[in-house]
Structure formats: C-alpha cells, structure tokens
Amino acid sequence: MSLRIGLTGGIGSGKSTVAARLVERGAELIDTDAIARNLTLAGGAAIEPIREAFGAGFIDAGGALDRTRMREAAFADVEAKRRLEAILHPRIGEEVERRAAASVAPITVLDIPLLVESGRWRSRVDRVWVVDCSEETQLTRVMARSGWTESAVRAVLDQQATRAARRAAADAVIHNDGIGLDALRREVDALWERTLAPA
C-alpha cells in the first residue's frame, strides 16, 4: 500500500520544486490546487454551486470562476471564504481519495498548501512534510515571480499558518533557505531514501 505524505509549506517556500523532485524519484503527486482549478473551470463540478451561492457575477464570460473577483471577496469576507470552501473542500476530498486509492507508487504525495490550517487533512495522511524558509525569503520569491506588491504577499502570509505552527505539525522539515537547487534536491533525496528504508 502506498505511503501517503501530506506536503505543505507557505507561499514561496519552494513546495512545488520539492513536489517535482519527489515525482522524479517515483512518487505519485496529487495536487489539491490543481483539482480545485479543474473544479472551477467552465463545466467544472463546482461552477453551478458557486453560481447559486454567489451569483452569476462570479462566473466569467467563458463560464469559469472569476478568480480575481472571488479572491477579493474571500479576502474581504470570512463568510464568503467559508461558503466557497464548503463547496470546494468536499469535492476536492473525494477526488483526492479516488486518486490516492488508485496509486501504485511507493509514496503518494498530497500537495496541500493549507494542510495545517484546515485541520481536516492530518487524519488522511501517514506523515506530514513541511517545506520551510524565512518570511523574508518567501516575500522575495513571490514578488519576483508574480509581480505582486509586498503588501499583497503579506496579506496572503497573514492568512496562512505561522512557520512555527507548520513545523510543529511536521514529521519532517525540508529546509529551503539560502541553498541552491542541487542542495535542495539532495535534501529531498535523503528524506526519500530514509522514508523507504526498511525499518
């Protein structure tokens, strides 16, 4: 049976890079953000429930979720965020379970950005791996890749779990601060090998 790893980390931590390396080593990756995006594309299973809950103004001309408008609404209104999560989370959970049950890889990685914040994923994974770096590094990376302002990045950071909370929930911490890509890969490889080593 495939070992289920919950992979998480704050925005700009390098979680996607770590996930890609785990796939190279033979892991099956289940990306909850990608599942959420598919649910909210035109014709996606969440589109009609979102239209009913929020109105047609939250669906763009192509029939997909208007992500910018929804992001603004969710940041401004906790209740709007809860309503959106009530639509998406059960559907994401069902798809994750379907894919995980079908996995034949030695390790199945569930990429869950808000694993610690949600509180509902811990029981679904065997171990939690956290990709960690300083807040300053997160800011620099996200501003460089997205063009966001510092205040926009900080607004996201403020809604995510603290580094301390993530590390406290971790069975393993992957340190991704002040190191190059090769060093990060070596760190991931070592963790992979330790995890699969006979007890």
Low-confidence stretches at least 5 residues in length (pLDDT < 50)? none
Please, how many helices?
A: 10
The SSE string, one letter per element, is: EHEHHHHEHEHHHEH
Oligomer: single chain
Q: Rg to the nearest angstrom?
A: 18 Å
Order of strands, widest sheet = 2-3-1-4-5
- How far the N terminus sits from the C terminus, by CA atoms, comes to 16 Å
Proportion of residues in helical segments: 55-70%
Number of strands: 5
Principal-axes geometry comes out as globular
Averaging pLDDT over every residue, what do you get? 93
Structure characterization notes:
The protein has ten helices and five strands. A five-stranded parallel beta sheet has the order 2-3-1-4-5, sandwiched between helices. It has 199 residues and is an alpha/beta fold. Helix content is 55%, strand content 13%. Helix 4 (67-76) packs across helix 5 (78-102).
